[in-house]
Amino acid sequence: MVVKRSDDEESLFETSKSRGSFLHRLFSVSLFVAICFVYAYRLTHIPTGGENHGGGEDYYYGTWTWLGLLAAELWFGLYWVLTQAVRWNLVFRKTFKKRLAQRYEESKLPKVDIFVCTADPEVEPPIMVINTVLSLMAYDYPSEKLSVYLSDDAASDLTFYALLEASLFAKHWLPFCKKFNVQPTSPAAYFNNILLHHNHAKEFANIKKLYDEMKKRIEDATKLGRVASEERSKHRGFSQWDSYSSRRDHDTILQIILHKKEPHNSKDEDGNYLPTLVYLAREKRPQYHHNFKAGAMNSLLRVSSVISNAKIILNVDCDMYSNSSESVRDALCFLMDEEKGHEIAFVQFPQTFENILKHDIYSSTLLSIVDVEMHGADGYGGPFYIGTCCFHRRDALSGMKFSVGYKNDLLKSERDHSIEENLHELEVKSKALASCTYEENTLWGKEMGVRYGCLVEDVMTGLCIHLQGWKSVYYSPPRKAFYGVAPTTLLQALVQHKRWAEGQVQILLSEHCPALYGHGRISLGHQLGYSYCNCWALTSLSKLYYSIIPSLYLLRGIPLFPKMSSIWFIPFAYVIVGESGRSLLEFVLFGSTIQGWWNDLRMVLYKGTSSYLFALIDSISKLFGLPDSPFTVTAKVMEEDVSERYEKQVMEFGAASPLFTVLATLALLNLFCLLGILKELALSEDWFETYKKMSLQILLCGFLVLINIPIYQGLFLRKDKGRLPSSIAIKSTVLALSTCILFNMLKD
């Protein structure tokens, strides 16, 4: 699929371009021409007179309705141009880890700090968190060069207890992983794959027993809601909870659990050092804004600079366990490359999910973004930072600007502050860096570290890094590097997309707007790529207009599109068939199914008419000083009945939400309109002429009805708990029916 570029043979990585880029560009040009013809039709057929009572073809549609369609289509066309920026120049990467091993001895490799963030033990269970931590500790990399930091924004002693248990289990787990080349290195994921265990049944049984015992102790404590007094007395770290008031009001809690300065406690059963392991719950006070995950990341940046100070940082979400033990070496192939490594600020790996089913009912794989658009952004200077599964250069993340004279000094030994101080002194010194007041009158969150003031702080941070002259790399290895947990209900997915879209609007309106501030600082393709994401929420108005107006005009028999016999029908048909065929081909080529593609189309519609709409409304509200929407942590666990429906790929509604009210109303409105025109066709003697005149509108309305079948089922046919609530059914039916009746009663 790719054509290799003539890179240096001794380079640690290779960049290739998409083989089908010429055909794609040719098709895109033809589609652009067709879009221009659509505009020509709208501009040359604007209704200017009254209704033609003589029965001719020139019906009076209403100038404003027509201009509204033109505005929607202009926006669709502009947005389509933006999408081409991330499809025009796809590049793919390949690493050469053997060259890395031949060039650098193990002792010469740089240290790596790993940040794991968790925020709530109820939605992010401690057993899941420590599985992620253990998978990262077991990387195929010198253990003494790894340091794992867990940031717990809930300051939960249950999570701390689970981490203590994990530190004990790691003494057996890490040697087991190395001895048998275990993949994946998350115990839970590994034990779920029974086919892997035939060659070492005895050892497997022993390590499985140890894990089950640990898991039981952690889950028992979680169910109890507290750590037993006997367990608390075994570790001095629990004393730090004596001054604990609540998760929003407590001192800094920091504990270095494993460190080489305590060799009796920090070696595995084979006598090898374990990675450094640190627990951090930064100080929280009600009167101070804590900046959510961005604040946690910045606290980790400062604390780690004292304890380990690695020049490479990996950050992952607490549910994103390592699926490949070679990810660190893959990242180093980019960051340590002699020719280009010095200009790379971060290496972004795809965010993939283990609970995705064959047809991906909520389109959680984000296939177009992960498998296409991120590679396209990489072709213009680098992918966007997505907040997880990312290896950073500490200098770049800390706010340093790139300069031509920057030296790639990853081989230079980092200063080890811990040599000069004992662990207690290190902990005391580090705690001060995680206090509420430390960032006052500093550049943290503004020009240093992860940026504040944006719901998508990760994208904003990556943008600022790019604006400072750095580049980034997107690498999708043959074996997926990380696996996480995708949303399992429609509401979870829609709320998640609402937050993302609202954050993108914040970037669009910020001083770092790529379309304006990015001029001269990043490439035009990069500007367009960022702008494409920033405009997600703005597409809601056009999608909403197209979902309502053409269908309503069906009820009055008024065509808004050219009839089938008109030459103007051709560009409309070409755009519809061409773009649909392109997206279907894209899905099939990247391993999805036709049903998966159909589900993605549904989610594009649902996001566009609900999540993005409310994101736009909230963004406008904030401009007038109205309250912000509350931050929502995506649930990582689900009830048994929800799980069963998800496994059967049945759409989960369940809750009453304004998002569902909008979707159900639109679905019913289109159903009523389709039934109305079908009734008219059935009673009409010249039904075929009517169909030819209204064909595109009928097809659009029919498409909207077909794609909304899960909503009709949730409203009227299903009896399980995942159906749409009766309150939603009543409200949406009344709204849709009254809209149709009122519109039909209006006179021209």
Structure described in brief:
This protein is an alpha/beta fold.
Task: Give a quick set of tags describing it.
single chain; 748 residues; eight-stranded mixed β-sheet; disordered N terminus; 24 helices; 13 strands; three-stranded antiparallel β-sheet; alpha/beta
Q: Tell me about the biggest sheet?
A: 8 strands, mixed
Overall shape: globular
- C-alpha Rg (nearest Å): 28 Å
- Unreliable stretches, pLDDT < 50, 5 or more residues? 1-8, 51-60
Class from secondary-structure proportions: alpha/beta
Helix content: 40-55%
| Overall pLDDT metric | 91
Number of helices: 24
Distance N to C terminus: 56 Å
List the helices and strands and how they pair.
Elements: E1 2-4, E2 13-18, H1 21-44, H2 63-85, E3 91-95, H3 97-103, E4 112-118, H4 126-137, E5 146-152, H5 157-180, H6 187-191, H7 201-224, H8 229-232, E6 253-258, E7 276-281, H9 292-307, E8 312-317, E9 321-322, H10 327-335, E10 344-348, H11 367-378, E11 390-393, H12 394-397, H13 423-432, H14 457-467, E12 471-474, E13 482-483, H15 490-508, H16 524-534, H17 539-555, H18 569-589, H19 594-623, H20 640-647, H21 658-683, H22 687-707, H23 709-717, H24 726-745
Parallel strand pairs: 4-5, 4-8, 5-7, 10-12
Antiparallel strand pairs: 1-2, 2-3, 6-7, 8-11, 9-13, 10-11
Helix pairs in contact: 1-2, 1-18, 2-16, 2-17, 4-5, 5-7, 9-13, 15-19, 17-19, 17-21, 17-22, 19-21, 21-22, 21-24
